[in-house]
Amino acid sequence: MRKMLLVLAVLVLAFGTAFGQGKLQEVQARGELRCGVNQTLPGFGSVDAAGEFQGFDVDFCRSIAAAVLGDANAVNFRPLSAQERFTAVQSGEVDVLIRNSTFTLSRDTSVGLNFTAPTFYDGQGFMVRTDSGINTLADFEGRSICVQSGTTTELNLADVLGALDVQFTPVIFESAPQLVSAYDDGQCDGWTTDKSGLASFLPTLGVPSDHRIMDATISKEPLGPAVLHGDDQWYDVVKWVVYATFAAEEYGITSANVDAALESPNPQVRRMLGVDPDQVRGLGLSSDALYQAILQMGNYGEIYDRHLGPDTQFDIPRGLNAPYTRGGLLYSPPFN
Amino acid sequence: MFEVIPPRPAPGGVAGVGGWIRRNLFSSPANTLLTVVTGVFVVYVGLSVVLWALFDASWGQVWANQRLFAVYRYPADLLWRPMAVLAAMMALIGVMGGAGRRNEILRGLFWSLVAFVAFVTVIALLFWPSVRVLWAGVLAASLVGYAVGVARPSFVRGLPWAWVAWLFLGFFLLYGVTPGSGLLRIVPARDWGGFMLTLILFTGIVPSFPLGIALALGRRSKLPAIKYVCTGFIEIVRGAPLIMWLFVASLLLPLFLNTDPNNLPAILRAYVAITLFSAAYMAENVRGGLQAVPRGQTEAARALGLGGWQTTSLIVLPQALRAVIPAIVGQAIGLFKDTSLVFIVGLADFFRVTEIVANQPASLQVTGGVKLELYLYVALIYFFFAYRMSIASRQLEKQLGVGTR
Cβ(A86)–Cβ(A111) under 8 Å? Predict the structure, then answer.
């Protein structure tokens, strides 16, 4: 069925572009961006008590809206379940999907998506008690590890520790809350899931300071925005908005000082902010598009700090999610 | 000679409460042991739940998110619109309850709902200044409706039309008419949710009723085309779980109708799926009733010279429906809870809001999370409505004498 939908979507798209109606023009004519998000992942996408969407992924929707439409609030958020998220992109129900979706080969090909640069590099990690004496994966020899059943984390755990020839006892749970309380009660020595998940559940433990997240990461989970395969102009727009948030952090441009940065002698900055307008216009956007994105939503670091940084309860270390200049993986191509 | 012995009280431990306890709980050593063990267990569990709810539980998140629970993202300044629809609904039920004063079941249902509304109104008066007037208005509308029903019982005859009008006007009031801003601006259906959505989807039982009757009659038709289409529909729909039909409606309906999925709100798609699903089950319930009507009834009607339609609508259907009313109420209770499956197509119904609130960053700051509190709260609300309907269904069964003839 997915294939059929994909074929249909591509057909519709082919007709659309034949009449000069790409996604970008469609979004601009409509005046709002339809963005598929999660509403049950704390820190990334949630609905607060006032009914507003909040989170790291949600803010990237707003950045794209600020760039394309000049207004960060011109977003029509569409909460999607994990099961329907890709179909929603294929059928054109959402313009862009920013819902903690992992960039994989099959999603890029047979599912028919195009992923931009990942906005968050996640990976499977381990939580242990500080006094447990477990420092490396080999220390799990003869110990027990709590894991959720039927997930890729269960498979990764068996694969990686099996390859290291570590004998451990997996303790399987159906749901995350059950698992967390079991770990908290001391039913297992360690607990494994994605590192962002570990960080968000850490504050709910009885005595959070008794626990720590190990350095080891045993899987790749690059999460990022995705658009429908086949509309290159729209793909370029979403991609370069994401790159602009990376570059702005690299050059030290924030929502507070972006106006001063308009005077910057750095040709990269001048091109990005539209002082030299040709590059941004090449995307099909007005010359101040990326300037607006940064002015209204801030650079990558600001978005990160708002939802996941040290001032929040999650306090996820930047790790791989730092600019390449500080040892991370965030690297924007030049704005030439 | 003999003298009359005055009547004496029964020996201790035979009659009264003490006797009942002795007979039923402590009649043998094994029985005594069971009673003590069960008693200790029940008291222990009950006490721990109460103590937990009073002292350990943190109800802050449940309290802070009442708006999400009620209407999800429906704009705060337009809350008067869903409340007006609710007030009209309560007024109509009030007319029914007032006019049918001798009908215990309707009246009981009405007063239970009024008790619920009154409870919320008191809370609103004390703590929620923004919706204070609205809740008081709903309470007033219910009582006015009841008074009207008492004074003019004949109004009941117009009620079916009033309900139809309520359905349409209610929809337009919820959805709005004008784009942009203003009092009647359009609120896109994706912002609807919470208990309001649960109730909206629950009304799917109403259109499913005539549909179900039509399907049931069609299945007994002698015309093969009608018969096989109806049978096929009923069996195919009943042959797959509701969750699958929700998916089908959500993904395939826009393709069948060849339209942009954004033109068909997710709520509409879910509503269609729930209505058709419910209609198939309704059809089987009604068919059971049709089969229970003795053949002699039809033959007698024919002998009196009634035509096919008249026989069906005047003789067979009234008796058939009467026999299956309890089954239909049972189906309604099931549907009320099944509406929670719509989370699978991205809708935020009452139950789904629990998950949303549990995953707010603020909820994670509470040690131990707030899931137990949230689920307990949701369970209580579901229980109140489902159990009330179940009581009504039992009263109805008794009144109709189903099962005794």
Answer: yes
Contacts of B359 in chain A (CB under 8 A): 39-42, 46
Does residue A52 share a domain with residue A16?
yes
Closest CA to A170 of A147, A137, A152: A147
- For domain B189-405, say whether CATH 3.40.50.2300 is its number: no
Domain identity same for A108 and A238: yes
**CATH for A197:** 3.40.190.10
**Residue A133: inside a domain:** yes
Cβ of A56 under 8 Å from any chain B Cβ? no
Same domain as A91, residue A20: yes
A194 within a domain of the structure (yes/no): yes
Degrees, nearest 5: CA angle A216-A222-A223 = 125
Query: Do A49 and B65 make contact, defined as CB atoms within 8 angstroms?
Result: yes
How many domains, in total, are found in chain A? Answer: 2
Higher pLDDT, A33 or B180: A33
The number of beta carbons lying within 10 Å of the beta carbon of residue A155 is 12
What contacts B192, CB < 8 A, 6 or more positions away?
A: B71, B72, B73, B74, B174, B200, B267
- A84–B64 CB contact, under 8 Å: no
Contacts of A180 in chain B (CB under 8 A): 369
A88 & A129 share domain = no
Measured between alpha carbons, how far is B345 from B187 in angstroms, rounded to an integer? 19
Please check whether residue A273 lies inside any domain of the structure.
no
Range of the domain at A214: 124-219
Q: Give me the pLDDT at residue A15, please.
A: 47
Nearest CB to A48 within list B191, B358, B360? B360
pLDDT along chain A (336 residues), means of 10: 52 48 92 92 90 95 96 93 85 92 89 94 92 90 87 84 92 80 89 86 82 89 93 96 96 95 93 91 94 96 94 87 94 94
Regarding whether A109 and A74 lie in a shared domain, the answer is yes
Q: pLDDT tier at B365 (50, 70, 90 boundaries)?
A: confident
Listed in sequence order, the residues at least 6 apart from A190 whose beta carbon sits closer than 8 Å to its beta carbon are A126, A127, A128, A132, A134, A140, A143, A144, A145, A146
ipTM score for this prediction: 0.79
C-alpha to C-alpha distance for B198 and B86, rounded to whole angstroms? 13
Give the distance from CA B145 to its chain's centroid. 21
In a shared domain, residues A115 and A236:
yes
Asked if A34 reaches chain B (Cβ–Cβ under 8 Å), the answer is yes
Q: Return the closest-CA partner of residue B153 out of B108, B105, B96, B104.
A: B96
Measured CA angle at B403 (ends B397, B405), to 5 deg: 115
Domain ranges of chain B: 76-186, 189-405
Predicted pLDDT of residue A16? 45
Structure tokens at A169: 């006892």
3-class secondary-structure state, position B65: coil
Residue A330 DSSP one-character state: B
A235 & A117 share domain: yes
Which stretches within B176-265 are classed as H helix? Answer: 194-202, 205-219, 224-238, 242-256
> What are the E-state strand segments in A134-282?
144-148, 169-173, 190-194, 211-213, 221-223, 226-228
d(CA B405, CA B397): 12
Q: Are A181 and B76 a contacting pair at CB < 8 A?
A: no
- Cα B308 to Cα A302: distance, rounded to the nearest angstrom: 75
Statement to judge: residues A67 and A109 lie in one domain: yes
Q: Is residue A248 part of a domain?
A: no
Please report, to the nearest 10 degrees, the dihedral formed by the alpha carbons of residues B306, B307, B313, B317 taken in order.
80
**E strands, A200-287, in order:** 211-213, 221-223, 226-228
Contact B173, B84 (CB under 8 A): yes
